[in-house]
Amino acid sequence: ADQHEDKEEIIDESCDLLYHLFVLWENAGVDLYDIMKKLEERDEKKGNKKVVGHLDKTF
């Protein structure tokens, strides 16, 4: 999708990827907050912490 720079195709492929990730996480007992926590931990190690405006979360 990226090679053709087709926005709709990129959206479709991203939806497929996210769907399969969520299925994997559900089967493994992992949720999005577990992933966010790990990203925060990694970011703190690198000293490159950024504040984003989504749900007042920092990661």
Helix content: 55-70%
What is the N-to-C order of secondary-structure elements (H for helix, E for strand)? HH
How large is the radius of gyration?
Answer: 15 Å
Q: Would you tell me the structural class of the helices and strands?
A: mainly alpha
The major β-sheet equals: none
What keyword list fits this structure?
59 residues, mainly alpha, 2 helices
Explain this structure.
The chain has 59 residues and is mainly alpha-helical. It has one domain (2-46). It has 2 helices and no strands. It is flat. The two termini are 28 Å apart. The model has no long low-confidence stretch (mean pLDDT 82).
What's the arrangement of secondary structure elements?
Elements: H1 7-28, H2 32-46
Summary of the model, kept short:
The protein is an all-alpha fold and 59 residues long.
